[in-house]
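Memo to structure team: turn this sequence into structure tokens by end of day. - J.P.
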Amino acid sequence: MDMSHFITIGENIHCTRIVLAGGKSTVELPDSGLAVTFTNDGQPRTLAIPADWGELSPAYGDGKVKHIALAVHQATRGDSKARRDGEDYLVAAAQKQIDAGADFLDVNVDEYSNDPSEQVETMRWLAGFLSQRVDVPLSIDSSRVETLAAGLEACRKEVGPPMVNSVSLERTDAIDTIRRFDAHAVVSASGKDRMPADATERLANFEQIVALLDEAGMPREQMHLDPLVLPISTDPGNGTLLLEATAQARKRFDGVHLTGGFSNVSFGMPRRNLLNTVFIRLCVEAGADSGIINPIATPPAAIAELDEQAEPFRLARAFLTGKDMFGAEFIAAHRDGKLDAAVN
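Reply from structure team:
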């Protein structure tokens, strides 16, 4: 499969992202407590977790370190060493995705703070900081238009138009901001007041939002239609539904890109990376040419080289397409170690 034209939107610069305290990504420092490990310019480094981090990030009390939020905090509020470590952590996280093939970097700070004004200022700082240090455009991701605008305004324009994640019928107020900055956009199939139930509703919602974007003068090649990926753990038909919606949208909307947050499909299941990789392959076959993915875990090159005759691929495909209802065979194979040779 040719993945050379696939547009990768790297999803890892999110303040939701966690590593486990005491897990393989953390280490106990002899004089300053727990730290998150990382590599920068080939050198092992650590990002210290401040003593009051549990007060600032309640998830830490459950053993979860929101490491991107931690890096932003240290880069903007720490002492001189912590600032340098935080900055280097963010650059390293971005560069790893670029090296793995990211064409855009998705940036989200909504969970950094509950204060809308602090979200705006944090996005303005982070987008400006990253934009000056990487050579790919950013995808500004937020539930608030004010935060989107702050991020877009801070982006360095020389690397190409940025992206907005996302616009939909429930947030048409983002259209003016998207056009003002000549941005690409993830165009969600969400309805005005509810989620679509099936492929038909997704296509109907696309018809309305694409018409509004056309009217606003947005080029079709800057629209990345997202049919909304839902977990197969909640409904075994969700994989097939997404593939159907993608294939229909490819036929109906000339000139657009088809995308999705493909890792959503595997929430709650074992061997998530195998399921994600196979699902991206199936979505590309259905017409997708873009994706909001972790390119480090699911590099496009690995997707292109998947062996469709291998048992792990066939079991994952059957589960994703509803032929293995509720994944009984897939889970049994996982327990029996039959998927061990597959993508981790």
